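Tokens in:
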């Protein structure tokens, strides 16, 4: 291309394809951002703030979709096609090698205040706070039209109570816009807003970036509980439900053994305690004495002499299910 000669439309498309394909090959993480009401100066500041690990690329949606398809055909990487459904409205791409959450936070720093223009759809609720407006009493009728309670204080108009002037999703009227302008209120702020996240072929909501390790552990535990409950309800053995199934089965067999003459080694000890409840006291007393650090002085030597018989390797672990 000759110096000083403007590229043709076809040449511009070719250059854009090359640029976007290069970015797709170099970066595996992409933030899809909305760019409504973002000015060129503001976008330039964002580019400077992200310079280093991140690159901002804007363009028409049709051009971006075309370049992504070209890249997928050339490389065989079909996962990038997941970006195409996300290219709706006034959006751009931020390619990054840094931490996605940190990049999003850096982008959010460049929001700027903006006045309420007539016909604009309010992104948030707009509330006019109480206080002195500094306007002269001739403006009282203007406030009355908008049903804003006022009074005259020291020769100026004072708003008595806060008023919700515009609700989120409503269009800004001429009266509301004029009032906010008179009061010097710039209620809206605009900047690049992260709408979706692309990470190595996966697409997810930006809210996922706010999850902590504790949140992940909590969600995992909730999932395990659901699997366990479902497995128990269906009597379907899983790793999560197996311990509960074994304990429940042991409890059922033990209940039958207690109510009948049938017995098994693990039930013998339970039956022994049920026949002679005083053994509960004998079993608990040494433990309580050991915890308090005070033991019986009398008969200690005799107890030491009585060595318990060695347990056989074949003897079941009776205490396992106690």
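Residues out:
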């Amino acid at each position: 291309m000759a110096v000083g000669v403007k590229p043709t439309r076809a040449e511009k498309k070719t250059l854009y394809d090359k640029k976007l394909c290069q970015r797709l090959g170099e970066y595996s993480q992409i933030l899809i951002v909305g760019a409504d009401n973002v000015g060129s100066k503001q976008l330039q500041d964002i580019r400077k703030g992200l310079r280093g690990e991140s690159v901002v690329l804007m363009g028409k949606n049709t051009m971006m979709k075309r370049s992504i398809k070209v890249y997928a055909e050339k490389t065989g990487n079909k996962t990038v096609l997941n970006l195409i459904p996300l290219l709706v409205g006034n959006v751009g791409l931020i390619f990054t090698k840094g931490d996605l959450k940190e990049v999003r936070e850096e982008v959010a720093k460049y929001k700027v205040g903006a006045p309420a223009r007539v016909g604009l759809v309010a992104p948030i609720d707009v509330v006019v706070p109480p206080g002195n407006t500094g306007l002269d009493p001739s403006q009282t009728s203007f406030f009355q039209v908008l049903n804003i309670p006022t009074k005259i204080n020291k020769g100026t108009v004072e708003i008595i109570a806060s008023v919700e002037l515009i609700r989120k999703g409503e269009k800004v009227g001429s009266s509301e816009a004029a009032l906010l302008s008179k009061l010097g209120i710039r209620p809206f702020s605009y900047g690049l807003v992260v709408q979706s996240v692309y990470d190595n072929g996966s697409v997810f909501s930006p809210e996922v970036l706010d999850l902590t390790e504790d949140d992940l552990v909590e969600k995992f535990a909730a999932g395990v509980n659901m699997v366990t409950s479902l497995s128990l309800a269906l009597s379907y053995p899983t790793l999560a439900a197996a311990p509960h199934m074994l304990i429940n089965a042991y409890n059922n067999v033990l209940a039958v053994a207690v109510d009948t003459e049938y017995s098994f080694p693990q039930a013998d000890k339970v039956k022994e305690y049920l026949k002679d409840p005083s053994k509960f006291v004998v079993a608990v007393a040494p433990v309580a004495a050991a915890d308090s650090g005070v033991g019986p002085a009398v008969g200690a030597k005799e107890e030491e002499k009585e060595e318990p018989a060695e347990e056989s390797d074949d003897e079941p672990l009776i205490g396992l299910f106690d």
